[in-house]
Fold each of these.
Amino acid sequence: MLKTDHPNLVLINFKEPDASGHANNWNAYLKGIKDTDAYAWEIWKLIKSDPFYKDNTTLFVTNDHGRHLDGVKDGFVNHGNCACEGCQHINLYAYGPDFKKNLIVKDTYYQKDVAATTAKLLDLQMPHSEGKSIDVLFKKAK
């Protein structure tokens, strides 16, 4: 679909490693991490090589929630549902022609800020959103 239809907006949600984590399956959890990384890598390579997407596409890779750090409650099994540091921390990889390269942002942002940043990229108004655009990512003011 990505190669033939060239959609303008795509949201992909991989069920792993989340499903295996909640199922308390450590080996499948680790495999899910590796597989999802490989899928993200394939998408990134497509973006870099396909003339439709190249130099014209933004990619966000993030997780839906964090997980307990080792030794907190039951570890990875019931992850993402408390105030521990591990559950409160997620990662975001942001790539695209509007963004600075090799930037590591250590400020605190939230999932709702990814939506606000996406809206800014697309020149969409979200008047009822509580999110704020992650402006530090941008090469220049948008």
Amino acid sequence: MNKKYLFLTLAFIPFVLAACNNSKVTTTPKSAEDTSGQVATILNETGTYIVSASKSSLKWFGERIGGSSHDGTLDIKDGQIILSGGSLSSAEFVIDMTTIKESKQSPVIKHLSGPDFFDTETYPESTLKIVSATQIGDSSTYNIEADLTIKDSTNPITFPAEVNVRDTTLTADASFTIDRTRWNVIYGSGNFFKELGDKAIKNEISYTINIIAELN
């Protein structure tokens, strides 16, 4: 299989709101104007929000040292976010690794799903668990800390996320980059295969996540 191809896989994803245990995401109700002039409340609700798999999206991007790149999507299988008085009681998301797709529809997808990369037959799911969230000033942006599990390997990640609640709908948007070798996805990595030169696959994989969840 050509070593120039790289793929991402994550499990992704995402979301973004959170505070764990007794940590408060926000202590007082507040609002922010969106571009349509409607008022959006920001994490001042109580309840369980169920992720809409059909409305949410998870996109990935990876590239070779020599410059060629690939991008695509993964499906969010399910997830929920539980808020209590503006605090996150729990949040966990499941990514269906067997749904990995590439926008170019090249044959490399079969390689990505195989043992060299994500071995989706053995590891069909990835998970993301929110650990904590710190609000940035009075904005709707939060610094998120989470545990990401891929191929039964778990590592912490951090990233900023934009989170809003309007009526019964919660939305969360985030972008972040991981080093795939931390999850034992080392195929084509210049760190492990020095002879590859510009055919090496970059360790970094970037993700863009949009979550839409509805109050249960």
Amino acid sequence: MSLFTKRESSAERRRQIVEAALRLLAEVPLLSLTTRQIAREVGLTQPALFRHFHTKEELLRAVVDDQRERLGKALLVLFREQRMPLDRIEALFALLLRHAGENPGLVRLLLADAAAPGFPGLHRALDILASTKLELVASLLRKAQADGSVPAQVDVRAAAQLFVTLIQGTLLMRQRAGVETAHDQDESVPLKMWLAALRAGCPAREEEHDAHEDEHEDAREDEGPAFDPVVATGSERLVALDVRPILAEGRDPLGTIEAQLERLAPVGAMLLTAPFAPHPLMHLLSERGYRLTLEEREPGVFSVLICAPDAPELVDLSSLPAPEPLEGVLVAVAALAEGGAMLFRVPRRPELLLPRLSERGCTCLLVEHDDGAALLHVTRSRTHAQVDSVA
């Protein structure tokens, strides 16, 4: 058997284990569910299961990651439809409830077992799911404010938190009422009330913050601002952001991404590194005029190159042998007009190239990928150039 076949077989077995765990969670409380039960459901021995997942928590995190990926694909389909922001929120509400109905094991994790002790990694993964919904709704509400369908005085973050509460409350009522009774309920009523409150200007943002609110805002500074539809107007030409540490803390990185995007110049670009492909985010950014390129640079490490509307096209020289990347950059830059910019990908940090670009009156910014390749943003200017690496 080839290595390729073995890898595929291992991935398929992991998928079967994850699906079995999700099925069992629909009936068995988290603290009562054992890896032996899951192994038996798949037709494996317990030691064989541990070759794919070393701990029960690792397996449960894989369950949540799988559900996040499935939801992401469904959201991508939803956002491809041309709808107004509030219509998208209504569709999102229906999609989340439908997905929960199809995956009762996830509902158990979100509600009944959310406070189960001994699973900090699982709790962080669940926090990311809830935070993602909050940031996404906040983004749509800002768009609704921009088009006038929601009054400007509405506190979009508070409104988004209420939306998440509506989802969780509806799922809890389903769980208590039982499947048969739940089907008889009109679950759209809470959402209609929420929408009516929004259109009436509630929950309103207070004009003057008291001391308690100021402390609350200070505590949120590390999260970055909520996702906002304003096109970037900053001055940075190249920004790097690795969201993996943010996700490891159980936070959604959407606000931090937006804060970084606001720093971009109209000709700038941002290199985003993530442990999964952020398809819904990419679609939202493409609607705002950003150009995006997604790559899986190595297993489980995705990079998204986000180019501002006026950014130069990427010239990819990373597959060329030395010294062709160096020569290619020098030839291209020679024809660059004063004030013009170019964006290159080269196979590694170009130590020999950088001083030669400086001699030609170019300012360079550099971002390195995990695999050693580098993005190089070059601007032609009159002044003596400098070379900076972006952290």
Amino acid sequence: MHYVDEGLGEPVLLLHGNPTWSFYYRDLIKGLRDRYRVIAPDHIGCGLSDKPQQYPYTLATHIDNLSRLVDSLGVSELTLGVHDWGGPIGLGWAVRHPDRVRRLVVFNTAAFLEGTMPLRIRMCRWPILGPVAVRGLNLFARAAARLACAQRERMTPDVKRAYLLPYNDFANRVAILRFVQDIPLKPSGASYALVQSIEQQLPLLRDKPMSIFWGMCDFVFTPQFLGAWTSRFPNADVHRFPDAGHYVVQDAHERILPLLISFLARS
């Protein structure tokens, strides 16, 4: 497992989703590392981590991997930041260890069973079509680079290349497809029961300071998901970005950073 570990001070752990990697958090890392220890891993199969072909790419495995990483780094207490699949992975770890969570930072994600999945994503789960589209043609990652960023001018050719760099061939896209296949849409899904269990245990974290940064133009994690967070964590600080999409940090990092620094300092 590859990870970024920069700066000294209180640990801040940032977890990416699919199909991004720790590169997604680059501007927050640069802005926080002068006063915090910022840790940003690449989940197995993602970014610069190994990409084994025969591997249990399930939510349970990713949570176990995160647990081993945190323990190996000797981190006893941390602030947890999550985006996309980082939500169920991070909150899955957090409900196991609520005493080790100091604060929560949420970017367009879910850790509960809510809403529906857009057809364009469900199609990527279809037999034959899914592997061809996601692994063969790299359509999932390429489409995300185009659609998940509302501020299109920020997705420059160099930035787009960096997002796609780790996923440059069929073998290296294995985790992208496995993440899509693991989305818990119905009870028979491999991770459905685990997400349900995480959702039921979220009250263990209700007293933790939470700050939410939400891109309101997200076609996957719509404002309905934001409402699901605020209903469960009514005391959370909520920052809505009407001109930001699913890649809210990519779209609004310079507005997020001072708000995040203020939240960390006062809580």
